[in-house]
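Standup notes
- DV: blocked on the single-chain target, sequence here:
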Amino acid sequence: MSEPILVNQPANPQHLYMLFHGVGSQPQSMAPLAKLIAATLPEASVICVAAPYAFDLAPGGRQWFSVKNVTEENRPQRVEQAMGEFIRCIENWQAVSDLGAENTTLIGFSQGAIMALSMTQMVDKQPAARIFALSGRFAAEPSSPAKGVRIHLLHGRLDRVMDVRQAEQSFAQLKALKADVTLDIFDDLEHGISREEAMRMQQYLRKEE
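- DV (later): unblocked, structure below
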């Protein structure tokens, strides 16, 4: 099983940042962004998490849920089945860091973002105060404002894996629910994490910490 990467782990951390990779990938894929966060906030614990299950479409990768034959109809059930493990992962690292939800930020890319966003709709007690969803979406249309959670949606306009309209629709739906949400769209970005996107995240971190 792939192991998590502890990018920064101070003796007395003030905040916990957990980064969740995309389907079929590894925690190493989130390391450059994690290192930027650690450099910006050296007092924070920064962890690149490994999804718990082996990717079932190719060797070497990890996944939270299978995307084999995934549809709009069966995606919510697959996400919900993985959600217990997702919450336990967050709570385990909170215990290690001796920090609670109010000091926890989740950063997910693609499937990692799906898990983080869908969490706000599938659990009653939110284990994090802030979510950065990169190139992600909800498993199903949101119906709750996820009070107490600030949600940042960041997406590439050229994304052909997860259409930018997913982010635009989610933003509109969350705003209608009076959620605490922002949307940033990057015109030249495909399905990935660009330097410009990372810099925008860094701006949010400096402003909000």
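- Follow-up: The mean pLDDT is 96.
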